[in-house]
Amino acid sequence: MIRRRPSFHPLPQTIELTPTLYFPRLLVGLWALSSDRWNEPVAEHKIVNELRQYYQNGMIGFDMADIYGPAEKIYGAFIESLKTSPPSSHLSSHLPQPVSMTKFVPKPGEMTFDKVKEAIEASLGRMKIETVDLIQFHWWDYSDKRYLDALTHLNELTKLDDPLVRHVGLTNFDSERLEEICQKVPNIRTNQVQFSIIDTRPEGKMRKVCERYNVKLLTYGTLCGGLLSEKYIGQSPPSSPTPSQAKYLQSILQWGSWDLFQELLQVLQEIAVKHGYTIANVATKYVLRQPHVAAVIVGARLGVNQHIEENWRSLECNLSDEDLEKIQAVQQKGKHLEDVIGDCGDEYR
């Protein structure tokens, strides 16, 4: 079992939320491990090797969940591999320990301290760590207010002599519930929500609540499952989409139409070419420039592709006022997804 002693190490645009919670502005998301429909099965040792490559290249933060299939177990194998064969890196003579972020996603019901503690201990056992850096809590049913009990107990786990949890965050909570929780449970650090050039819901009510309680967003869906790329300019929607593409294609069609999306891609390509970047770089920087966003989660297509170097270039991409005006001109032709879906996270309830 690895126990991480907090220490700060310079990595590309690392953000520090507290002295014991920091990570690069790009995180590795392991949602793809929750579905066999992503690609052909990949051997565990190959996935572990790819996680090592992300880590060696400065992507030291890994996001997963207790419901993401074998993600926690594979992360544990990755942690074990670091003990037996520590990797070297051109970024630093001594890489920090990986930043572990998982989600606690229980079925609504009674939330006792022992039940919450047992669930977190199970995740820690699979992940081969003694303390999780950030536990992100998701709750399916707002009408069952016992989510407040669960969060109270998670907060208690940060106060043990040997804490099981360092920090508590949320996943897909809306603005109203985020405010309610922050008023009753101290030190909520993050909320993980969908955020992209298409889905700008977090720029509204969510931003105001985040600023009021010093909560930062971890965002996913920023590249719309890879649809925000040069590959789809002048193309029809994918006929056999991955689960991620299917999800974000629905968002695109709720926002506007595939033709309007094509117009957006053309504008993004124009901006990208002008600055010497890619559409993905521009789309990522659009989200990262928001002051209440801590990091973007890059979905890892393990065994398919990585794009590590290209992803890092997003941090260098600077968007001018003129660039933003061109983007906003297309955005305004579509619908605001808050009017269609509801607030952040409402698509899950």
Automatic annotation (TrEMBL):
Residues 26-330 form the NADP-dependent oxidoreductase domain. It comes from the Eukaryota. It holds the Pfam family Aldo_ket_red. SUPFAM superfamilies: NAD(P)-linked oxidoreductase. InterPro entries: NAD(P)_OxRdtase_dom_sf (IPR036812), NADP_OxRdtase_dom (IPR023210). This is NADP-dependent oxidoreductase domain-containing protein. The lineage of its organism: Eukaryota, Fungi, Fungi incertae sedis, Mucoromycota, Mucoromycotina.
